[in-house]
Structures are given as structure tokens and as C-alpha cells.
# Entry
Amino acid sequence: MFQMSGARWAAAAKRHALLAKGLRVTIGWDGDILDKALQTADMYLGSTMPRDNLDVRAPRLKWLQMTGAGADYLMPLDWLPKRMVLTNNSGAQAIKAKDSVAMALLMLNARLPAVLTNQRKKRWEQLYSPPIAGKTAVVIGFGRLGQAAGRAAKGLGLNVISVTRTGQRARTADLAVRTAQIDKVLPKADFVIVTAPLTKETRGLLNRDRLDLMKPSAGLVNIARAPIMDHDALCAKLENGSISGAILDVHDPEPLPADSGLWSTPNLIVLPHITCDDPDYISALLDFWFQNFARFKKGKPLKNRVDRALGY
# Structure
């Protein structure tokens, strides 16, 4: 569902007929037409970026669009000529993410990770839980994905604390703190939701010491990037019951190897990176691209421009 096919392009071009008029499009697979196409390309759209010697290979290229949201695998952007702009697909997953976070919060509140562990062990143990309303969710990262998580939490009656680089408060947060203050809010969390981009500042952010700050009844959700947390420390806490449960949708590497200990960790639900994407992902991406193309034609700043210093 992430493939950029001719049929999908044609359907999007029909939806944006005026903008598509006059565009000459080349569609290839695994770099089979890449170098020839780059010689005359003004714009590039793809899941991988042609980074080597790009200034010479693509003398006319001005704009590169990623199919995904996270740009961490492209950092640092020293390969990107200064005349070129890189944009990502941040925000496209917000609608599905809101649904998925609501699901995850309800599952954690109902102790579903522990219930499913008991099911595998054929153990009958009645785990009762109070209503979710009035509890507190700490959301790490509060861009469009994090705000979607915040809306899901607020919709369930939770208090929301956002943790961001700047500490700037968004409307869906009851309290906002800077990342440097995360140690003060983790002990308050009934649920911790990770939605931050992977940067040098967030890599390893949820280390063993910070996981130890969470109360034993708390649950954790990660729909961002796996290296943000210490999985060995998390597994140890899940095994000894010092964290109630966790739902992980992102892993390193992916697919998760069959011999990974995560598969058998108690009180953990492993999801195969599915919570934020839907089958119409590419259609939505192309609609966004055409909206940005209208700005490109008028010389306006492009939306979702990746900051070279921040990495997102």
C-alpha cells in the first residue's frame, strides 16, 4: 500500500487536473530509471532519497518529497544541496493515530496486555480496572501525531501533559513542559505515549532511570521510533510487574526478528507497525503533494519542510 504506482498517480492527477496539466512524470522501481530521470527532474517523490553526488546528478532538482514522516534515517542533511528543499509527510497519520491511541489507552486501562499473557498461559485471573476518565496521560512529542494522541486522550476524559523541546503549550494539553523537565511529570503518568521524532536529543530518552520513575500501575505506548526507549529495561519492568503493560508498534529492526525477546515478554502487546497508516496512504500523500505543488508554482514556502538543524 506504500507503492507509488502509475494507477495511483493517474487517479491523483485526475483529482487535481489543473495542477497536473503539463507535468511530465517518470515512474520507476528500485532506481531502474533514476539517473536518467534526475538529469531533467525539477521534483522528486520517493521513499528513498538519491543522496550521492546529487548536485551533479540532478542539476535542475529543487524539491524532494519523502513518502514517510520520520527523516531520522536521512540525517544529517549534509548530502542535500542548499538550493534543494526536503519535505516529509508529517501529519498524514494523525487521523488513524487518534483512533489507535484511543484503542491502546482503553486496552492498557483494561489490563489487556496482562489478560492476553494469562490467556497464553491458560491462567484464569480476573483483573478489574476503574474507569479511565480522570487519569493522566503524558505525551512525549506534541507535533501533529502527538496532538492526535492528545485528542484521543482528552476524548476519553484524561488529563494531558505534553513534553516537547520548547515546552510550548498546544490547545489539547492541560500542561506543557520542556523535555528537560520530563523527570518531573513521568511519576504523574497513568499512561505514557511516545510520539516524538527520533533525533539526537530523543534517542534513548526513556532510559532505565526514567522508566523507573513511572508508577507500577502505569502503561506505555510507543507509536514513534523504537530507539527512543530502552527495550531491555522495559522488558525487565514488564516481567517484574513494575510497569502495568505496554503496547509497542515500532521496533528496531523491522520486521521484528523471530528470536526477539519482545515476542514472549509478559504484559506486552507487539504490533507490526500498523497503528498510524491506512490503505489509502499513498492517495493522501499525493493529495498533499499537489497542494504543496500549488505553493511551489507560486513561489510560496512549502509545507512540511524538514529543518536541517532539528532533523524533522
Summary: The longest strand covers residues 159-164. The first helix runs from residue 6 to 15.
